[in-house]
Amino acid sequence: MQLGLDSKRALVTGASRGLGRAVAGALCDEGASVAVCARDEARLAKVAAEIGATAFAADLTPKGASARLAQDVIARLGGVDVLVVNTGGPPVGTFEAVDDLAWEGAVDSLFLSAVGLVRACLPGMRAQRWGRILIVTSVAALEPHPGLILSNAIRPALHGLVNALSREVAADGITVNALLPGFTATERLQEIGVGDDQVASQVPAGRMGRPEEFAALAAFLASEPAAYITGQAIACDGGLLRSI
Ligand code: NAD
């Protein structure tokens, strides 16, 4: 299948490792011009060199940071055709363990950063009547996980944004979808001590996902042939979600 991404310009955030890095790599492999963003400048520069992308170091949590990043990328690449919104997961904790400051931080990093990126990239996509917006959320947005109150509560708001925005921009050739990773083998999961043996019994596929499997879904949704898929929340989870 021809994905038609070789002339496209993409911005992938949270791309110094894990899912973001895999998605950026897949888009580079398809011939797209890819801008990658993350906080750690040295690490990001190394990743960018490895996959053939351009590095834009930034922390997307402070107010206005995501819009500034997108404007810098648009100025350098001449536009953004494919926007992949991805950031680190918010702190873990139950409701009683999380204070107002943590709620504000999670809203800024997970939700408002996405709004800023979309707001900055949308006018160019509308003008050229082509665009792909992918927002990485989590299976926890559909079926809450114990002890992840911030993720459980804030990510569903992104699904509301995806569905409502998709309707506003569909006639301009722009698709907007949410991608929901299930347990996927990234450094983040290693850091929080989740191993293959722990997930094997919970996941029908009997193993963790690989970042490349998630990236393949993202590359397809970013592609020309995916033009009629919009407003969806699509999981890559080995059958974990039970809801119909
Ligand atoms: P990760 O922690 O390995 O990578 C996150 C990336 O985002 C890194 O490049 C990091 O530098 C960057 N980042 C974090 N905060 C940032 C900020 N404020 N500004 C700019 N960049 C920032 O995470 P991952 O495992 O690749 O997961 C990516 C997303 O998917 C996260 O939101 C995570 O919660 C979610 N998710 C992951 C899984 C999984 O199993 N890996 C499952 C469900 C949901």
TrEMBL record:
Against InterPro entries, the record matches this protein to: NAD(P)-bd_dom_sf, SDR, SDR_fam
Family according to the record: Belongs to the short-chain dehydrogenases/reductases (SDR) family.
- Signal peptide annotation: none
- Name used for this protein in its record: 3-oxoacyl-[acyl-carrier-protein] reductase FabG
Task: Say yes or no: keyword Ion transport present.
Answer: no
Species whose genome carries this gene: Paraburkholderia hiiakae
One MF term in the entry's GO annotations: 3-oxoacyl-[acyl-carrier-protein] reductase (NADPH) activity
Enzyme class, spelled out: oxidoreductase
Where is the organism placed in the taxonomic lineage, from the top?
Bacteria, Pseudomonadati, Pseudomonadota, Betaproteobacteria, Burkholderiales
The superkingdom listed in its UniProt entry is: Bacteria
- Specify whether Oxidoreductase is a keyword of the entry: yes
Q: Which UniProt keywords apply?
A: Oxidoreductase
E.C. number: 1.1.1.100
